[in-house]
Amino acid sequence: MRTIYIRKLRFEEARIKLERELHEAFMEGESYVEILHGIGEGILKRMAIDYIGTCDFLKLVETDPMFRSNPGATIVEILAPSKEYINRLKS
Q: 69 with 62: CB under 8 angstroms?
């Protein structure tokens, strides 16, 4: 599982990095991505969740907060073809 660190970044920097790395993960055939946004005031978490909502290929993984290992992270499922299929398209 790929991890995207946007913690301690400014809002616009975090948005650009999140967008770029999620698209890279999609093209590499990743299934899940963990976004580390930190806890703070929740601004980066809200930005990440809002962005996930705008993408057809991303699905927020809802987990019970009681069992979540890191409250400063959000897990996203990437609804993409397999790595093998993507590699065939790249060839």
A: no
Task: Identify the CA nearest to 74 among candidates 66, 88, 46.
Answer: 46
Task: Judge whether 16 and 46 are in contact, CB under 8 Å.
Answer: no
Q: Looking at the 3D structure of the chain, how many domains does it have? A: 1
Burial class (CB in 10 A: 0-12, 13-18, 19+), 49: middle
Residue 78, domain extent? 2-90
Q: List the CATH number of the domain containing 40.
A: 3.30.1370.110
Alpha-carbon gap, residue 50 to 48, rounded angstroms: 5
Record the pTM.
0.81
The pLDDT tens digits of the residues spanning 21-35 come to 999 998 888 889 999
Give the Cα separation of 41 and 44 in Å (integer).
8
**Residue count of the chain:** 91
